[in-house]
Amino acid sequence: MIKFLKTKGTLFLILGILGFIGVAVTVTILGTGHSAPDKLMAIYIGIFGLIPILLLLIIDRICVWKFGPAKVNKIEVYVLTAFILLFVLNWIRLQLQI
Predict the structure, then answer these.
(1) Which residues span the domain enclosing 33?
(2) Which of 5, 33, 66, 88 could form a disulfide with 9 if both were Cys (CB 3.0 to 4.6 A apart)?
(3) Are residues 12 and 66 in contact, defined by beta-carbon separation less than 8 angstroms?
(4) Global model pTM greater than 0.85
């Protein structure tokens, strides 16, 4: 597994695996609750939380298969940097509104 992640692993693959683990833990905690709203929320998080992660992983694996992990990682770093920059700019905008 470690060898696979070193040779074919990408940024979005690792984030996707961590996302799957996070959703699974959240669904397990909410699903074992005593109230019906907790169980319903677990179903919604399971459905709507796993579908985008699964689509991201499928697109990531297709791109790695087609272009190779080095090129895909380079693009993924640019995309992640752009999202972080947008997050910071939005945070600054919200701080200036107050």
Answers:
(1) 2-97
(2) 5
(3) no
(4) no
